[in-house]
């Protein structure tokens, strides 16, 4: 496995507070007296200045050792620690596993960041039906930090307890749901899909009842790392409330703090243009990854173009456009091959919301660019996964379409195709009869990377089909055996190294 990168400096931020009260409700986390760390993503943590510590550190403002008890006492005080109090000479926040649990299961504030968790307000279209009763119902924004690249990062939670938006729900996450989110995010990151990352999963030893898992089932609390949690549904709520003033503030927040753009004469139009490009790109990346998100509701679509909130996701075994992930998606609204259309529809809803503060014409013109941007991004994503360098829009589009035709006609397993074809080389043989056109087109392409990484000599590709997901979960459920999960994460990261 690749070494963790050189850690960034720990730089807490509180930008969300500038948006003001109408965007969130301060909340408290549920009490989790019994907590066991199951997954700690030190690779992602390093990028926000958090590193493992093997020794208890000093308590800020005292000379004694930093124990769990002293940290719990210190954390909720009116004066949160400043970053300077906590980080050592190397500027990082070093956490033992016990301290990690204090912050990521008990939600003691991170020094210098938000003093209290904030449940974010949003609405959304769920399977195209508008729902004004949602919002952060089992999660909250816990902290904001800056990453090594100077980007604002949110630490959001899942399963951290009830909020004003929990409705009938218990505010909890099942352990299986958390394990599935780890697998989805690790795999998507390796496949270069723009995704949230799972930072932490902690077993909370409660018994939950769910309709879609054998119950009682185990519980967990998760922390995810995302550039933001501003959703299309965040804009929709402001349109519903007819709060143009707050929407203008949100536009400014997204443009300046997330897109790093200086707002010009028409900020909402500039925002929409950038958002459409990102959303189209994400949909295209799903196609090349063979990924079916399952719940592409507008409350799950991030303005940053990061995929997040993984529920009933699946990877498609083959190029089957009707392949559906969610058992409750009876119409196949979010089936594999419909994800481009679903995201186009979602972008339209963002335009509808922005109509609160801008006229329709420029928004319509931008929305019409969606199909072309999706097609371009789909070709780029496919070429990247094939390990060849782009040649030009027309050539790349033709290659993309030929690959899709061959994959759909042959039902070649997607993982096998990408594994064998990496670098632009196709095997001979009957299995590949449908790929003659692809072979001819590929002969003009140059590899962007060779096949020297040992992964390319493996007998079988690293895949993530549902049977394997279930087997990894079964080992945990039946024997509390976390070995298969750890081994899979290592295998995925190795594949990611081979692809990058
Ligand atoms: P999702 O389908 O996970 O995006 O969730 C849709 C909405 O339902 C969001 O407002 C969630 O916060 C809420 N929700 C989902 N599960 C629960 C739960 N167990 N308890 C409370 N709220 C939940
Ligand atoms: Mg959601």
Main traits of this protein?
two-stranded antiparallel sheet, binds adenosine monophosphate, alpha+beta, 500 residues, 7-stranded antiparallel beta sheet
Summarize the model shown.
By secondary structure, the chain is α+β, with helices and mostly antiparallel strands. It is built from 16 helices and 15 strands.
Written overview of the protein:
With 500 residues, the chain is of the alpha+beta class. The chain is built from 16 helices and 15 strands. The chain is 38% helix and 13% strand. It is globular. The two termini are 13 Å apart. The model is unreliable at 58-73 and 75-79 (pLDDT under 50).
Enumerate how many helices there are, as a single number: 16
Helix content: 25-40%
Strand content: 5-15%
User: What's the structural domain tally?
Assistant: 2
Mean of the pLDDT scores? 94
Largest sheet: 7 strands, antiparallel
Global morphology: globular
Indicate the structural class: alpha+beta
Would you report the number of β strands? 15
Distance between the termini: 13 Å
- Name the bound molecules: adenosine monophosphate, magnesium ion
Low-confidence stretches: 58-73, 75-79
Integer-rounded radius of gyration: 23 Å
State the assembly state of the protein chains.
single chain
How is this fold's topology laid out?
Elements: E1 11-13, E2 24-26, E3 36-40, H1 42-46, E4 50-52, H2 68-74, H3 83-86, E5 93-95, H4 97-104, E6 118-120, E7 124-126, E8 129-131, E9 141-146, E10 152-158, E11 173-174, H5 175-190, E12 197-208, E13 217-226, H6 232-240, H7 244-258, H8 267-289, E14 291-292, E15 314-315, H9 339-354, H10 360-367, H11 370-386, H12 393-410, H13 414-421, H14 436-442, H15 466-479, H16 483-499
Parallel strand pairs: 4-5
Antiparallel strand pairs: 1-9, 2-6, 3-12, 7-8, 9-10, 10-13, 11-13, 12-13, 14-15
The structure holds adenosine monophosphate (AMP) and magnesium ion.
